[in-house]
Model the fold of this input.
Amino acid sequence: MNIVLITQQFPYGVGEQFLETELPLLAQNAKRVEIIPYSGIPGTKRIVPKNVYVHTDVESHIQEKIQALPSSLPLTGMERWTRDFCALTHAIADTIEECILLQDTDVLYSYWLTESAYAAVLLKKKYPHLHAISRGHGYDVFSERQNSDHRPYQKETIEGLDAVYAVCKAGASYMKKKYPSVQENVTDRYLGVTNQDFQKGSSDGIVRIVSCATLKPLKRIHRIAEALQYVSRPVQWVHIGDGPEMDRIRTIADILPSHIQCTFLGACTNSAVHAYYQSHPVDAFINCSETEALPVSIMEAMSYGIPCIGTDVGGVSEIIHQENGWLLHKDFHTDDLVETIERIDLSNEEKRKSAQQTQRNLCNAEKNYSNFVSEMYI
Done:
């Protein structure tokens, strides 16, 4: 089986790190995998299996094609979004057709339900033997995250693909309800993480919490800093990730009481995140996002037996419950988070075991990705 995988940047940069776990299983079950990273090539190239070929300089080819398109009158709002969507879609499709011998390709796999997925639809029309599929995550599924009633050509994309795999049940349900006529094309398939050894929590009375996210408004990491102003017990908070909200959050952290310690590690590789969990006790992982699909960061924490605090958005409630963590209302009050941190029981090993068992049952990479690959081309 020959597979073409369309990504935004992977294996370059540090994003789309979920593919670091999925790709080896994908390659193991394929004769050849070719990766098209269509949106720039920043940073170092991550290691890929021997039968994986990464096309380079794709972004420059795509930009050349977009610039060669006829110009039009200035547009605003949805008109501009739709025009740009179509331009990028056709540029991706044309570039793939030029770079890859599609007659010998079996599967076109778009990692995002965006322009790259619609490009797969266009190519399938020209090469009907192709099995065209896409993942559906968060912003690419829930149009409200773009402050719009719909994403350009989302229905046509779902309709033209052989299958859309939402990464959570909430995402699949959303698409089926929004587009009843194409709901047979939509199903849910969880991402997964590698099983890890169980890690014990703190034993010195200090509560150690970790958050891991890009520092942008919808992640609401500032809410953690605000809540810590009112927590009475000793806490060490470590945040992994960087972004435009860093200065705002550091300003709040600077005025926290002396029994609250904060450490900002900045952007880290996925291997560095795992190294931290393997060498430091962590008593709770916190995700305060306003919107989500099903965060892999929560799965990773659970794989070590770390209970998680999360907001009830997207598919978060599919893996966080009272036995393995704490679920907050989407529009939680600061007092709710303060109370949750105050009642973390450092001696409750059962909650830690439940967290790890949840990952084993629902988010086991080897099981989930092996099953995904087995049904990829039937």
About this structure: The longest strand covers residues 260-266. The radius of gyration is 22 Å.
